[in-house]
Amino acid sequence: MVEGTQLAALVASKVCHDLVEPMNAIIQGLELLKDSDAATREDAMALVDQGVAKAWAKLDFFRFAVAGALVEGDGELEEARQTAERLFGALRPEFVWTAPSVTLPKAATRVVVNLLLIANECLPRGGKVELTANGAEVTVIATGPRAALRPATAAALRGETPSDGYSGPVVQPLLTGIFARQAGVEIVSRESDERVELVARTPAIRLAA
């Protein structure tokens, strides 16, 4: 069982872990600019722009998916679309939104957004992440070469304490599992050849007529 102080530490750890890469790109780009000539200035600025875009996308994601995970009331799944598209604009996989108009608790929407980042981590060689909805389910589908849900990720989603501690890769699914249980959302995973489905189920989902 994760206590409040430990949960806060996990969130901070995850944010820091995910910002290391874009911040390194920004620093490298700025270092290049110090001694750059016209031939290398464009590459230096590209590094800076890439780092800034990715850092902003990750911060916007965490603001929506983590900081707002316990908000109350109902909302539209569509509220998460801009955050999701910005996130995948800075990530490797293609992102496709095919979900119809869906009303569900805002806390459940945050769970779905967290599943998007887990889907990205299921694609070591890139591919496609699709978000769709049907009945009482919102489904995130990851397809691509060697697509797979790591056993440690599946265990963390179930709330199982990692045997080797709370390392970076399990923090996101661990938090997602906590948010899902708090929101009354059941998470189900299904795997087939080069395909992973992460399903968020709750009877509170309502599709538009």
Give me a quick take on this structure:
The chain has 209 residues and is of the alpha+beta class. 51% of the residues lie in helices and 20% in strands.
**How much helix is in the residues?**
40-55%
The string of secondary-structure elements, in order, is HHEHEEHEEHHEEE
By DSSP (H or I, 4+ residues per run), the number of helices equals: 6
* Largest sheet data: 5 strands, mixed
Shape: globular
Per-chain topology:
Elements: H1 4-34, H2 38-65, E1 74-76, H3 81-89, E2 94-97, E3 102-105, H4 106-121, E4 128-134, E5 137-143, H5 151-157, H6 168-183, E6 186-192, E7 195-201, E8 206-207
Parallel strand pairs: 2-4
Antiparallel strand pairs: 1-3, 3-8, 4-5, 5-7, 6-7
Helix pairs in contact: 1-2, 1-6, 2-3, 4-6, 5-6
